[in-house]
């Protein structure tokens, strides 16, 4: 579709309560020549006039069919699956980039160090106990996905001496990675990895990429982390790998069904760490800074940044 362009009748709808952090920060960057309103439950007249929306995809999707004038949606999430799954395509959707790398790096490396250095085990000791020394230096981390978040994690991991390999659709290798593999060579990618991190979008191509075959290719006692989307991981395959002893641990933040049902075996498995989709929460102030960059471009009728390709799903 053509680029979204500004006119004097445009209305920005901030899809959140008027006293929310999102509304307050957004109001600070809206220029005087742009009308705006904030509401967590907009009425029909507001939706009919709205040409720009900012908010969480799971909230916006419920109003897409009621906003006929919509030109542009700015997501406050890294993922946009609810909007991708909606049939409407006659607007520009922009994702949130450059916001999550720091917090994701903290999460991933925090867990790798906690498990590798047995920090959690030491914390539960009730008597003096010195285990054999272990380090992550020289060990291999494979990251499924090489977008901006993955690149930040890769750079942070390299600073600790990890060797980092990437995995993506094209095989293009960003500088943060030693090498990269395509989907067709996913078993070669997984071969002898000490740690496997999934930061993949939810698309048909990524369904079940982490399979029994792929897990078998990892080094013995490998650690799996999934912080992308639940569809990437075959949950039965993970349980098999844990029960067979091939995987040492699985740190799982995202799932096919969320919230994860209380009856799910992951909750009680001694080698599984469930973190309830908290690996990289949105920093609203940072999200609004990204929105402000795009809003300036929109008002100048310039191409927007981070436009989502509906066909690819990201």
Description of the structure:
Keywords: NAD, Oxidoreductase. This is D-3-phosphoglycerate dehydrogenase. Residues 113-278 form the D-isomer specific 2-hydroxyacid dehydrogenase NAD-binding domain. InterPro entries: D-isomer_DH_NAD-bd (IPR006140), NAD(P)-bd_dom_sf (IPR036291). The chain has 314 residues and is α/β, with parallel strands linked by helices. It folds into two domains: 11-98 and 282-299, Rossmann fold (3-Layer(aba) Sandwich), CATH 3.40.50; 101-274, NAD(P)-binding Rossmann-like Domain (Rossmann fold), CATH 3.40.50. It has eleven helices and twelve strands. Helix 5 packs across helix 7. It is elongated.
CATH superfamily descriptor of the largest domain: NAD(P)-binding Rossmann-like Domain
SS field, number of helical segments = 11
So what's the CATH class of the largest domain? Alpha Beta
How many strand elements? 12
- Which topology of the largest domain does CATH recognise? Rossmann fold
Query: Order of helices and strands, N to C?
Result: EHEHEHEHEHHEHEEHEHEHEEH
The rounded Rg comes to 22 Å
- Structural class estimated from helices and strands: alpha/beta
Let me know the average pLDDT: 96
Helix content: 25-40%
**Percent in strands:** 15-25%
> How are strands sequenced across the largest beta sheet?
8-7-6-9-10-11-12
């Amino acid at each position: 579709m053509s680029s979204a362009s500004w006119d004097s009748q445009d209305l920005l709808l901030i899809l959140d309560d008027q006293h929310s952090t999102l509304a307050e920060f957004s109001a600070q960057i809206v220029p005087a020549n742009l009308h705006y309103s904030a509401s967590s439950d907009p009425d029909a007249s507001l939706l009919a006039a709205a040409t720009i929306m900012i908010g969480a995809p799971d909230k916006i999707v419920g109003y897409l069919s009621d906003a006929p004038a919509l030109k542009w949606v700015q997501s406050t999430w890294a993922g946009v699956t609810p909007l991708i799954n909606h049939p409407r395509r006659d607007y520009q959707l922009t994702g949130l980039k450059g916001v999550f790398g720091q917090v994701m790096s903290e999460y991933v490396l925090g867990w790798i160090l906690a498990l590798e250095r047995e920090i959690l085990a030491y914390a539960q000791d009730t008597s003096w106990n010195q285990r054999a020394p272990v380090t992550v230096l020289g060990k291999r981390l494979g990251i499924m996905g090489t977008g901006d978040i993955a690149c930040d994690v890769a750079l942070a991991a390299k600073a600790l001496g990890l060797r980092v390999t990437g995995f993506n659709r094209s095989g293009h290798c960003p500088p943060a990675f030693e090498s990269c593999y395509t989907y067709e060579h996913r078993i070669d990618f997984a071969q002898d990895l000490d740690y496997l991190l999934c930061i993949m979008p939810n698309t048909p191509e990524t369904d079940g990429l982490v399979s029994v075959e792929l897990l078998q290719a990892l080094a013995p006692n490998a650690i799996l982390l999934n912080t992308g989307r639940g569809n990437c991981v075959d949950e039965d395959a993970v349980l098999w790998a844990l029960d067979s002893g091939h995987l040492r641990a699985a740190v799982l933040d995202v799932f096919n069904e969320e919230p994860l049902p209380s009856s799910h075996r992951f909750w009680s498995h001694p080698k599984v760490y469930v973190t309830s989709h908290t690996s990289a929460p949105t920093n609203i102030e940072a999200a609004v800074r990204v929105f402000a960059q795009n809003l300036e471009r929109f008002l100048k009728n310039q191409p927007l940044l981070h436009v989502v390709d509906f066909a690819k799903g990201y």
